[in-house]
């Protein structure tokens, strides 16, 4: 019997024709049938010759014993079947969120219900029902999730993008779909591409609800991250010089890196790309770059889109929604590491390796190393992938804050090998 289960690790619905559990149960049933027949054969033929005259008297006892054994085996099969089904649910996260809770929103219950196919089993895929994809950690934020799913159907969506992002940052990703209309007023001040790449973005284009600052002038006075100090200012400051003018030896120029590429450069992926300046530089060189970002303390997605670039609103805990070996270039900086355990960074690095084509470049740009141990740990991790080191520079930069403290950074350009 086909089934559908929720694969929580990558946040997508996965369909399967046969499971490990069903196979195990079938083998167990086959084993029980064979055992039962062998036991019956033994029961009727194992009596000594001098007791054959008592066969008629013992037949009833033997049949009763066989019946008891069969009943015992059937009970064991039933128990094993229930146990295997429970294990499958626990492993795959199937039915993780308890929709019977009294505080669960009706829309969430409807979205999470298993929807049977109208014609039964699909002959091509073997599935019998559809199951919605929801992040497994959503169960830990059930109250927030229920609040997110409380709205008027076919009405305007609540102004709660900050709530949605809070759920994402609590590892509740992907979020359920909603049946409401997002506010979409006219955006003024947009410029045609490629003029839009370096034109100041109007405050009216961005969504400011849930943010401390209400305009870009306010944001440019703050250090939002190591890569975003005045990064929304496209006219003054350093943003319009990034990747074409170096401030230190760990700042690689984009043309120098592209000269190292083999097989051409067409599409790239930027991790934690700030306001999208790297993608803008690549767009000037006819390379399409997707910028991964969240709206942490600023409307990064609005700003990147206003520049005519492609923002991908996705956390680094989510498996990247790209096929294997598709990108020519991956660019990342200190945003690659959130201070978690090494194992988490390993999972992320393996996923980046998955989507980078053989011969493609991995550009680690001014990665902040808190100490020598951090640098050595990162170096060992990188060397495990067997990439060719095209550029490798360790240097110091002065902290952009008033402290003026010197910090250690690693910049490298690596080339992915062919693996057969």
UniProtKB/TrEMBL annotation:
Bilayer-crossing regions: 24-44
Membrane-topology annotation of the record: Single-pass membrane protein; Single-pass type II membrane protein
SUPFAM superfamilies per UniProt: S-adenosyl-L-methionine-dependent methyltransferases
Location in the cell: Endomembrane system; Membrane
Keywords: Glycoprotein, Membrane, Methyltransferase, Signal-anchor, Transferase, Transmembrane, Transmembrane helix
Molecular function per GO: methyltransferase activity
Highest taxon above the source species: Eukaryota
Main location: membrane
GO BP term, pick one: methylation
InterPro entries, alphabetized: Prob_Methyltransferase, Put_SAM_MeTrfase, SAM-dependent_MTases_sf
GO cellular component: endomembrane system; membrane
Family (UniProt): Belongs to the methyltransferase superfamily.
PANTHER family in UniProt: OS06G0138600 PROTEIN, S-ADENOSYL-L-METHIONINE-DEPENDENT METHYLTRANSFERASE SUPERFAMILY PROTEIN-RELATED
Record's protein name: S-adenosyl-L-methionine-dependent methyltransferase
Organism: Erythroxylum novogranatense
């Amino acid at each position: 019997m086909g089934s559908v289960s929720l694969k929580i690790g990558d946040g997508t619905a996965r369909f399967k024709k046969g499971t490990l559990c069903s196979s195990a149960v079938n083998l167990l049933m086959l084993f029980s049938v064979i055992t039962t027949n062998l036991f019956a054969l033994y029961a009727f033929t194992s009596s000594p010759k001098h007791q054959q005259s008592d066969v008629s008297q013992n037949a009833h006892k033997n049949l009763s014993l066989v019946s008891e054994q069969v009943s015992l085996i059937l009970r064991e099969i039933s128990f094993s079947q229930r146990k295997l089904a429970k294990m499958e649910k626990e492993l795959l996260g199937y039915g993780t969120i308890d929709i019977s809770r009294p505080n669960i929103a009706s829309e969430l219950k409807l979205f999470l219900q298993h929807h049977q196919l109208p014609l039964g089993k699909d002959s091509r895929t073997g599935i019998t029902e559809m199951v919605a994809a929801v992040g497994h950690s959503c169960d830990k934020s059930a109250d927030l999730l229920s609040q997110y799913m409380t709205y008027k159907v076919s009405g305007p969506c609540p102004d709660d993008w900050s709530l949605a992002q809070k759920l994402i940052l609590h590892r509740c990703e992907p979020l359920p779909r909603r049946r409401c209309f997002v506010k979409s007023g006219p955006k003024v001040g947009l410029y045609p591409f490629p003029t839009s790449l370096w034109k100041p973005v109007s405050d009216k284009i961005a969504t400011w609800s849930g943010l401390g600052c209400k305009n870009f002038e306010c944001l440019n006075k703050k250090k939002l991250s190591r890569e975003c100090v005045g990064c929304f200012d496209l006219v003054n400051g350093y943003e319009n010089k990034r990747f074409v003018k170096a401030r230190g030896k760990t700042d690689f120029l984009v043309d120098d890196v592209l000269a190292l590429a083999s097989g051409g450069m067409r599409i790239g992926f930027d991790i934690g790309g700030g306001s999208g300046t790297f993608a803008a530089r690549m767009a000037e060189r006819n390379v399409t770059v997707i910028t991964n970002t969240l709206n942490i303390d600023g409307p990064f997605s609005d700003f990147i889109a206003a520049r005519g670039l492609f923002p991908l609103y996705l956390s680094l805990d989510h498996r990247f929604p790209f096929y294997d070996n598709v990108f020519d270039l991956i660019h990342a900086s200190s945003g690659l590491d959130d201070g978690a355990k090494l194992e988490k960074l390993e999972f992320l690095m393996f996923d980046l390796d998955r989507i980078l084509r053989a011969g493609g470049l991995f550009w680690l740009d001014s990665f902040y190393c808190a100490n020598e141990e951090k640098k050595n740990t990162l170096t060992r991790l990188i060397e495990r992938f067997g990439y060719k080191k095209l550029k490798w520079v360790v240097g110091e930069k002065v902290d952009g804050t008033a402290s003026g403290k010197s910090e250690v950074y690693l910049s490298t350009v690596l080339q992915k090998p062919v693996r057969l």
